[in-house]
Design a protein that fits this description.
Elements lengths: L6 E6 L3 E11 L7 E21 L10 E21 L4 E20 L10 E4 L2 E17 L2 E12 L3 H5 L2 E3 L2 E4 L7 E14 L2 E21 L4 E21 L9 E14 L18
Parallel strand pairs: 10-13
Antiparallel strand pairs: 1-3, 2-3, 3-4, 4-5, 5-6, 5-7, 7-8, 8-11, 9-10, 11-12, 12-13, 13-14
């Protein structure tokens, strides 16, 4: 401030989200021991980011636009799941989720120096859909033991920041990527659960393989950042859970959880040098 009051102001105008969902459970559906769960969910997200040059940033004085970007996404999904108590020892679940994704009203600045205003490039709307099935089967060898194997396919669609965010700031640049595909994951889990007096012990052994993992990657030489997919990330791990209610005295509950994960970047075309590394922000313990 002693040198100059000039700077930049970043304004997240009209950014936010709304979500709504409804679920219905029907017990003894068509027959004893058969449970039906159905539901629907709606999500709407909006991002609008304006960066202004400012002659006096401390007082919030806005000058000309330096960059603009934003857009909207909606995600509508429905699901159905059947849970079947086959016998006292065996049960199974079968479910399916269907999702419809749309991105629209996307834009980013692509200025023409011959015009006085900051010119915008409009991004075409995109619609995609995904189906996510899941299956699990459980076995109770006794009243205190439960073994369950589960497998599921899941999708995660990109959020507006990953699709549309674009700006220039002093020594770095972020580019939008409106062509991002959804992440696609295949997930396995084997659970062993032991019921205790007023509690339980549980071990989960899991493995997942996710394709098109959306991640912020930077071209270090040009200091340009964008969201691009890591083609494949595999993760395996073991989770231990202990719950004890009323330990030592009635009002004291103790819960303990410990997870070990081994995560590896299998394939990453933008930067093959990081293949074989642990995936970012994935702790070992």
């Amino acid at each position: 401030p002693q040198y100059t009051a000039a700077g930049e102001i970043k304004d997240f105008d009209d950014s936010g989200w709304q979500t709504a969902d409804v679920k219905l459970t029907v017990n003894d559906f068509l027959m004893n021991g058969l449970q039906l769960k159905v539901g629907a969910r709606h999500e709407a997200y909006a991002l609008n980011v304006d960066v202004y040059a400012s002659p006096d940033y401390a007082n919030g004085t806005k000058g000309d636009y330096k960059s603009r970007s934003g857009g909207k996404t909606t995600l509508d999904g429905v699901f159905a799941q059947l849970n079947w108590e086959i016998t006292d020892q065996w049960n199974t679940s079968l479910g399916l989720r269907q999702e419809q994704f749309k991105s629209n009203d996307g834009y980013y600045d692509k200025d023409d120096s011959t015009t006085p205003e900051l010119d915008l490039e409009m991004i075409p709307s995109v619609s995609r859909s995904a189906s996510s099935p899941k299956f699990s089967i459980g076995y109770l060898p006794s009243n205190s033991w439960l073994l369950r194997y589960s497998i599921a396919k899941a999708s995660r669609f990109p959020i507006p920041e990953e699709l549309f965010s674009q700006y220039k700031a002093y020594n770095e640049e972020s580019l939008s990527n409106p062509d991002l595909l959804p992440e696609e994951g295949l997930h396995h889990n084997l659970m062993v659960d032991k019921t205790l007096d007023n509690g339980n012990l549980r071990i989960n052994v899991f493995q997942e393989s996710i394709n098109n993992v959306i991640e912020s990657q930077t071209d270090i030489s040009n200091n340009v950042r964008t969201f691009v997919p890591v083609e494949q990330v595999d993760t395996a791990g073991v989770e231990f859970i202990a719950n004890q209610y009323g330990m030592f005295f009635t009002d004291l509950d103790v819960r303990f959880n410990l997870v070990y994960t081994d995560s590896e970047i299998i394939n990453n075309t933008p930067d093959p040098s990081i293949e074989g590394n642990r995936f970012t922000r994935m702790p070992k313990w």
